[in-house]
Amino acid sequence: MTCDRLCDLGYDEAQVEEALEMFQNCETKAAEFLHLLTQFNEMGFQQNAIKEVLLVHENHRERALEELMMRAA
């Protein structure tokens, strides 16, 4: 059910399943992660780097973005 709800928001099923696994099926944290992943991906950052910094910074948008920008510099 949680997977279906997140997929209905337009997220890729494989990414939804991965996010739910990373956050022990917490729909709120998984949704936040997927939203930020999409947002940062659209900014041109690499998906693997995005995932790493979001996990390290516990989905904290500003800290994750700051680290991504420092890595790209």
TrEMBL record:
One of its GO terms (molecular function) is ubiquitin binding. InterPro entries: UBA-like_sf, UBAP-1-like_UBA2, UBAP1, UBAP1_C. Pfam families: UBAP-1_UBA2. One of its GO terms (cellular component) is ESCRT I complex. It comes from the Eukaryota. Residues 33-71 form the Ubiquitin-associated protein 1-like UBA2 domain. GO terms for biological process: ubiquitin-dependent protein catabolic process via the multivesicular body sorting pathway. This is Ubiquitin-associated protein 1-like UBA2 domain-containing protein. It comes from Albula glossodonta (roundjaw bonefish).
